[in-house]
Amino acid sequence: MVAEAPSFDEEKNEAWHAFMQMHELLGARLEQELQASSRLSNADFTILVVLSESPERRCRVFEMGRIIGWEKSRLHHQLTRMCTRGLVRREADPDSPRGIFAVLTDKGYEAIVNAAPSHNDEVQRLFFDKITEQQVRQLRTISQRVLEDLLGD
């Protein structure tokens, strides 16, 4: 621990460390499962979910970056990799000379439809099976409160 850094009380310190360790380990396990079952990365899956839930399976790239919280360069490189694999394509926005849409292809839609059941089963097994319904509601409330502030920045 850095000597000059402000410290948390013991309960907050333990809660934060447990949350960070859970976040890292859970992310790694879910990434492994996605790769093994569908050959998709978590980044692929994240983009495919956003597009599959968007009207007409398309989303402005700028808006997608805001939704998932990625920087422009990370999103650009990920979309380039996914375009090469035929999962998404880019289209110019006819209403804006600089606007670009990411569009879910049929191959991308098939990939998310095939990957989602196994991924959801793994999320259920590794996470939701370990907590109560009340804790699920608390998690939703906490997450929404923190997200409101983060997205408002």
Task: State the main characteristics.
single chain, 153 residues, mainly alpha, Arc Repressor Mutant, subunit A, three-stranded antiparallel β-sheet, 6 helices, 8% strand
Description of the molecule:
- The protein is mainly alpha-helical and 153 residues long.
- It has one domain (30-152): Orthogonal Bundle (Arc Repressor Mutant, subunit A), CATH 1.10.10.10.
- Helix content is 67%, strand content 8%.
- The protein is built from 6 helices and 3 strands, in the order ααβααββαα.
- It has a 3-stranded antiparallel β-sheet.
- A hairpin with a 7-residue loop joins strand 2 and strand 3 (100-104).
- Helix 2 (42-52) crosses helix 5.
- The longest helix has 29 residues, at 10-38.
- The mean pLDDT is 93.
